């Protein structure tokens, strides 16, 4: 599959809401199978695109240990962008260039967490009908799902290239753990802020009146 065709497949989405539902042909058969095949093709196209990118990088410098973590950053952001697209449009999060940045597991995880959680206030503004707790729960589910998707794609690509082993495998797993912990810390901090905001203000202590 060519890169041009891959990009076209990834960007194509049905404009008609009814397109999300299975259509029936004249003989009564469902088009669900075709829709599933299309979704699978889109995912495969993205995997192939990312594989081509990382392969070129590895061809230039196969000894660059942290290069695959750059791939993980890109696929994670792409996965999160897919989840945020209904709310914020295409490529809501723009991943900064990795050049000159900390591409260690900690650095990569830190950027994934900060870039994705940075959309929480905008997400709340888009859902004024939800309570603060509901908005936080739904937002965290959204970015976690996006990250899991991107992480899974990065793993498949690196496994296919035969480089997901040794220190690299450890770094990828460490990045995953750090992102998971970062999301948990962010959510806990936000829950506390919500709790504090809901607590009644303490009345000032009464002062003794002079006689």
From TrEMBL:
Entry coiled-coil feature ranges: none
Stretches for region Disordered: 1-42
Domain DUF5610: 66-186
Polar residues bias: start-end ranges: 1-10
Signal peptide per UniProt: none
Comp. bias regions, Low complexity: 27-41
UniProt-listed Gene3D superfamilies: 1.10.132.90
Domain of life according to the entry: Bacteria
One Pfam family cited in the UniProt record for this chain: DUF5610
Name of the protein in its database record: DUF5610 domain-containing protein
Provenance organism: Rhodocyclus tenuis
Lineage of producing organism: Bacteria, Pseudomonadati, Pseudomonadota, Betaproteobacteria, Rhodocyclales
């Amino acid at each position: 599959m060519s890169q041009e065709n891959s990009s076209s497949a990834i960007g194509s989405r049905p404009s008609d809401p009814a397109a999300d539902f299975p259509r029936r042909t004249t003989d009564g058969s469902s088009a669900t199978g075709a829709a599933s095949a299309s979704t699978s093709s889109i995912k495969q196209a993205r995997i192939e695109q990312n594989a081509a990118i990382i392969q070129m990088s590895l061809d230039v410098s196969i000894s660059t240990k942290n290069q695959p973590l750059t791939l993980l950053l890109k696929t994670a952001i792409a996965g999160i962008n897919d989840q945020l697209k209904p709310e914020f449009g295409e490529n809501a999060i723009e991943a900064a260039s990795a050049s000159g940045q900390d591409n260690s597991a900690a650095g990569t995880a830190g950027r994934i967490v900060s870039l994705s959680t940075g959309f929480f206030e905008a997400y709340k503004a888009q859902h004024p009908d939800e309570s603060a707790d509901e908005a936080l729960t739904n937002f965290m589910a959204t970015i976690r799902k996006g990250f899991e998707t991107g992480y899974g794609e990065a793993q498949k690509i690196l496994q296919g290239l035969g480089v997901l082993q040794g220190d690299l495998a450890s770094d990828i797993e460490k990045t995953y753990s750090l992102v998971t912990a970062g999301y948990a810390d962010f959510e806990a901090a936000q829950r506390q802020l919500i709790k504090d905001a809901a607590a009644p203000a303490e009345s000032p202590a009464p002062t003794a009146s002079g006689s």
